[in-house]
Amino acid sequence: MNTSMRFLAGVAALCLAAATHAQKPIIYPAKGQSPQQQQKDEGECHVWAKQTTGIDPAALAASPPPQQTGAAVGGGERVRGAAGGALGGVAIGAIAGDAGKGAGIGAVVGLMAGGRKARQNQAARNQQAQGARQQQLNTYHRALGACLEGRGYTIK
């Protein structure tokens, strides 16, 4: 149950991140600026926001955050799980009369549990990378909005 809740919370967070990623500020020419003036102001504010924050939204869009895919290895979760399972299996097997068989069963169960933990850690790292990217985009949009507000636009 606890794992299911964490999984659902992760999926909800990813959906929310994807929804906010698509949201760009809405710019309204509150002082009656012409479309040509608005285009000029947006271009100049884009350059200013990019220089000020060091964030280029086009570069972020062109290079999505690296997603860790494939077998979830590298963190040692499987090895620790197998070792812990084997240790527990030895104890249970000793009680049942066959410590070797118990160790083998425990190692397999521990390996599976370690694999699950590795996949959870991999998903958390992917979500963290997506969150960092979204934070950069939000910073750029705040700078762009500040520049445009200074030029008489309303930003939502």
Structural overview:
The chain is mainly α. The chain has one domain. Helix content is 75%, strand content 3%. It has five helices and two strands, in the order αβααααβ. It has helices at residues 2-21, 35-53, 57-62, 77-96, 99-150, and strands spanning 27-28, 154-155. It has a two-stranded antiparallel ribbon. The protein is rod-shaped, with a radius of gyration of 26 Å. Residues 11-20 have low confidence and may be disordered.
Strand content: under 5%
* Whole-number total of structural domains: 1
Helix/strand/pairing class, anyone?
mainly alpha
- Give average pLDDT, whole number: 75
Shape: rod-shaped
Could you describe the largest sheet, including whether it forms a barrel? Answer: 2 strands, antiparallel
What is the rounded Rg? 26 Å
Give the tags.
single chain, mainly alpha, two-stranded antiparallel sheet, rod-shaped, 156 residues
Brief characterization of the structure:
It contains 5 helices and 2 strands, in the order H-E-H-H-H-H-E. By secondary structure, the chain is mainly alpha-helical. Helix 1 packs parallel to helix 5 (99-150), helix 2 (35-53) crosses helix 5 (99-150) and helix 4 (77-96) runs antiparallel to helix 5 (99-150).
Q: Which secondary structure elements does this structure contain, and how are they paired or packed?
A:
Elements: H1 2-21, E1 27-28, H2 35-53, H3 57-62, H4 77-96, H5 99-150, E2 154-155
Antiparallel strand pairs: 1-2
Helix pairs in contact: 1-5, 2-5, 4-5
